[in-house]
Design goal:
About 25% of the residues lie in helices and about 40% in strands. The protein has about 500 residues and is an alpha+beta fold.
């Protein structure tokens, strides 16, 4: 009864009752949550605070955003053209009367971008790009326009790297922030770009109703002028797509992980049965390079990106890794055991010392002909006289990889730069044998010298994935120089989440 009275009051009374209505609709969680999802309010904070998106950007508030949006649309119908998804929400919930608005650009968009079908597209990882080494994701639509022409478009969010300083790129990607860009382009352009890079493309047709497709399409229109800061770890291509899909598929948000990656979205859609069918595209020479019997593995079968672990070596160690995998992590999709670490810390509880810190590290071993590479930025034990001393350093090496059946072998050469010793030549090798998708043997060796002293490292591990999230491992670790010789058995367990 009260709700009906509110709807019947005058124009001025409606303005004053906005806050009252916001309290009332809390009794309907779906409606309240929908408004929050439309304005990208998640986990108690606005994920987009750009002034071109958030009207309350000076003092962000869910209630204030609702009030300002209603006021703006009443006073200036052009805001209806700017925020068509919000307008739909407000009119359907009787918060705003239906109004006439001349929106030629929105009309053109709706006529030319046809959403008979919506797709989530996952492009496999590319270690040569700092913003794509965990894969890339985009949304796409396709359909037939009024003239009978087939159309398909891609919605993408990416970091603008054109004017980025290469020497500060890593800092900007994690701390300073990069300029984020939304783009709408022909789908074929994006797919060809990925295929030219040798990536596999997984196109997932989504099982979404026509009403939800229309709402999602309008909500993506609202992002066209927005340039939020891009952060690799918490606001990347996957983050924005995850929240956008969550507008119409709210239940996928319940499975949000510590570090949202393109594969996480794939898994969420699969778990909630929103995938209607899957198409896979390869580069033209894929089967020529990898053999006619080559077959790929669903990305969703890979382990979660973040992990914590405990192991025993020269004491009890605790580990945490923001993303993504170690060489000891059994990798289903490849024979080669690659490595990608973002924010990994290894703490020796017994000695009360940090043993290793990887701000960013990758080991790329291409499964087809190409240059293998290994990059490390962080702090590790590379001192020639003190086994336990942690040395900040940066290392880069290049080489080649050979694959024989289930075995892989690679050799790389390069240099490590660290204080006191300056440039230290290094020679590395990485070997692996894949017993099956869940059991591997890895062997890593490293030689380093400063001209006067030499440092040798060897680590051999058997690893087994024992469930969806757990990996157990055991092996042998050796580190020796002219001044010490440390050899230890290693055994431990990792939990991925």
């Amino acid at each position: 009864m009260f709700k009906n009275l509110v709807y019947c009051v005058s124009f001025l009374c409606l303005l004053n009752s906005t806050t009252l209505y916001a309290n009332e609709i809390r009794q309907s969680p779906y409606k309240t949550d929908l408004w929050e999802r439309l304005i990208f309010f998640h986990n108690g904070a606005f994920q987009i605070t750009d002034r071109n998106f958030l009207l309350s950007h000076k003092n962000p508030s869910v209630k204030l955003e609702l009030s300002l949006t209603i006021k703006a649309m009443k006073n200036n119908p052009s805001f209806i053209c700017k925020y068509p998804a919000r307008y739909k929400y407000l009119t359907e919930n009787s918060l705003l009367a239906i109004q006439d608005a001349n929106c030629p650009n929105l009309k053109k968009y709706r006529e030319n971008v046809i959403a008979d079908k919506f797709y989530y597209i996952f492009a496999s990882k590319n270690f040569t790009s700092i913003t794509s080494f965990m894969g890339h994701s985009l949304l796409a639509v396709s359909g037939t326009d009024l003239s009978g022409k087939e159309r398909s478009h891609a919605y993408t969010f990416f970091a603008n790297l054109y004017d980025v300083n290469i020497f500060t790129l890593l800092y900007d990607a994690f701390i300073g922030g990069l300029e984020g860009v939304f783009a709408l382009s022909p789908l074929s352009e994006k797919l060809n770009e990925y295929l030219d890079e040798g990536r596999e493309i997984w196109r997932l047709e989504l099982n979404i109703s026509q009403q939800k497709r229309a709402l999602l399409k309008d909500s993506l229109w609202e992002l066209k002028d927005v340039k939020p800061e891009y952060f690799l770890h918490d606001f990347n291509c996957a983050t924005i797509i995850y929240y956008s899909l969550g507008i119409v598929l709210p239940d996928i948000l319940a499975s949000q992980s510590f570090f949202t990656s393109p594969v996480d979205i794939y898994k969420s859609l699969q778990i909630k049965n929103y995938i209607k069918n899957i198409q896979i595209q390869y580069k033209e020479d894929t089967f020529e390079q990898l053999g006619k019997d080559y077959s790929t593995v669903q990305p969703s079968l890979e382990m979660q990106d973040s992990s914590i672990g405990v192991y025993y070596k020269d004491g009890v160690h605790l580990t945490f890794m923001g993303a993504s995998h170690r060489t000891r992590t059994p990798q289903i999709a490849t024979i080669e055991q690659t490595r990608l670490k973002i924010g990994e810390i290894d703490f020796n509880i017994t000695k009360n010392k940090i043993e290793n810190f990887s701000a960013y590290e990758y080991l790329d071993l291409p499964r087809h002909k190409g240059l293998s590479s290994h990059l490390f930025l962080g702090a590790s034990r590379n001192d020639y006289t003190n086994y336990d001393k942690l040395r900040p350093n940066a290392a880069m090496s290049f080489g080649s990889d050979w694959q024989y059946g289930k075995a892989s072998f690679s050799v790389l050469a390069g240099a490590r730069v660290q204080a006191k010793d300056l440039v230290n030549p290094i020679l590395e090798s990485f070997s692996s044998y894949k017993f099956n998708d869940y059991t591997t043997f890895t062997l890593a060796t490293e030689f380093q010298t400063n001209g006067e002293n030499e440092l040798y490292k060897t680590k051999a591990l058997f690893s087994k994935r024992v469930s969806k999230n757990w990996v157990i491992f055991a092996g042998y670790d050796v580190m020796k120089s002219n001044n010490f010789n440390e050899e230890h058995l290693v055994t431990g367990i990792d939990y991925h989440f």
